[in-house]
Design a protein that fits this description.
Elements (H helix, E strand, L loop, with lengths): L1 H18 L5 H29 L3 H29 L4 H8 L4 H26 L1
Length: about 130
């Protein structure tokens, strides 16, 4: 289920960039997916830090540092590159979803909005 949502997120970001006539829509989608994943990873590390050490993001910053955070983002970017872009994989994703029924598209879109909402709001509640 998560892998499908992960692929669907990339597809929707890619197709949105295509409709908006953005340069390199496949790269925009790659950066978007990687950024959301990095944000979620940072939140998870922070939440674990808070649970185990009683400290939040500041403890994570001191422990991991900006270098490790940047390296983590680059690793996610590399993984996502091979999942979505290597050998033009993004070109065939449209075929996978082109006959998506309207009801299923609404449900998947709702799941993506819920994912974004939780990804953005939950860290604010935990860190705040």
């Amino acid at each position: 289920m998560m892998m499908k949502l992960y692929r669907y997120l990339y597809y929707r970001l890619y197709s949105w960039s295509l409709r908006k006539k953005r340069d390199l829509p496949q790269l925009n989608a790659l950066l978007g997916v990687s950024l959301v994943m990095a944000w979620n990873l940072l939140f998870l590390v922070s939440a674990v830090s808070r649970l185990l050490l009683g400290q939040g993001l500041s403890a994570v910053d001191k422990t991991l540092g900006k270098t490790v955070t940047a390296i983590s983002f680059l690793v996610l970017l590399g993984i996502n590159y091979f999942v979505f872009m290597y050998k033009g994989k993004y070109k065939t994703m449209g075929e996978e979803y082109k006959d998506e029924p309207r009801r299923k598209k609404r449900i998947n879109t709702l799941l993506l909005f819920l994912y974004f909402f939780v990804s953005l709001i939950l860290p604010v509640l935990v860190w705040g």
